[in-house]
Amino acid sequence: MNRRDFLKNLGLGTAALYLGGCSEQPADNDSTIQEEPIQETTQTLEDLLTQDIEFTADDLYKHYDVNITPEELVYLTRAIYHEGSDEKALVQVGTRWITNKEGKKEEVPVKAFDLDQLQESYRRIAHVINNRYQFDNCTEEFENLTGKLQFSKNGTFESILRECKSIDEEGRPRDCQFSCTHFHYKDFQTAEKEGEYSLATGDINSDRALLAYRALLEVLTGEHQDPTGRALWYKNKKLAEKQKGKPIKWNGEEAFATETIECSEIEKIPSTSIAKRIEQRDPKITCRADQSFRMKSTNKFLSHDYYTVEAEERKEMLYDSGNDTGHTYKNGKWLPRQSFSKKVPAHLRK
């Protein structure tokens, strides 16, 4: 049983904490005197890299407050490997002679990855995944103004990585958050081989997988600061437009939208008298609140454009049809032109 299963059995699993979106957790009022825990030396990045992946998952939880399983470490590494192996990081290192289709000798370039650029690409992909985790879990580092889970079903890394709309007959996931989980789906079926966790599988290059793993740990431990502008998305425009067959716009496009008809959720109340009627559940007062969250471009690195989320103004509409009159309010302000009665509401009269 891994750590997450143990916590789940205790009723403290991530799913139980976050299924309701961003809600405050009750304070711990247990006054029982507890013994001081034994102080342990925090594991360094090099320590984490050189030990068994299962131990690393435990140490990330103990020393860095990162709730992640060994399986998630493996699958996230493979996702970062596939998503971050950018062709623009390839540089020519020489040439070689080949025999082409016409049977003629031809000198062609030999390319290899610029390891510094590749490592930076891996880090940025890792930051986006971690930002999604922070966003869905409503952390202090990344506030989630939507109040809902947007990238997962239960706030775990596993759910963020595997969130797909459907599975085809071959078991291949479709319409996923990360294209690699569709195109390289076999790489996300087995994290453990012969009783040991393995970063590389199939055609994955083990040296580059280790770079991706290092990038992931750098991000999770806070050793590498986010250069993406708190990005929640990255897009390879050239690849996406090739697949879709037409230019695609992301900057300024709506990412999320929230709406509510609960008057208890209204933040700007026109008057104390209306507030009291809301509290008394007066049926003549109805409400609606909407807010749009749009993608905002932050920067670009190699083939990827990065985007964060920007909240538009929250629009709150309150309708009061009491006393045979009708008054409409937007964000707490009376709208005469949209009100049934053109007379100033009583609470606004001097």
* Helix and strand sequence: HHHHHEEHHEEHEEHEHEHEEEEE
Low-confidence runs: 6-20
Overall mean pLDDT: 87
Rg result: 26 Å
In percent, how much strand structure appears in the residues? 15-25%
Task: Count helical runs.
Answer: 11
Shape: elongated
Q: Sheet bearing the most strands, described? A: 7 strands, antiparallel
Write a structural description:
The chain has 350 residues and is α+β, with helices and mostly antiparallel strands. Helix content is 31%, strand content 23%. The protein contains 11 helices and 13 strands. The strands form 4 sheets. Strands 7, 8, 9, 10, 11, 12 and 13 form a 7-stranded antiparallel sheet that branches. It has a two-stranded antiparallel ribbon with strand order 1-2. Strands 3-4 form a two-stranded antiparallel sheet. Strand 12 and strand 13 form a beta hairpin. Helix 5 crosses helix 9 (206-220). The N and C termini lie far apart (69 Å).
Record keyword descriptors for this entry:
single chain; 350 residues; alpha+beta; 7-stranded antiparallel β-sheet; two-stranded antiparallel sheet; 11 helices
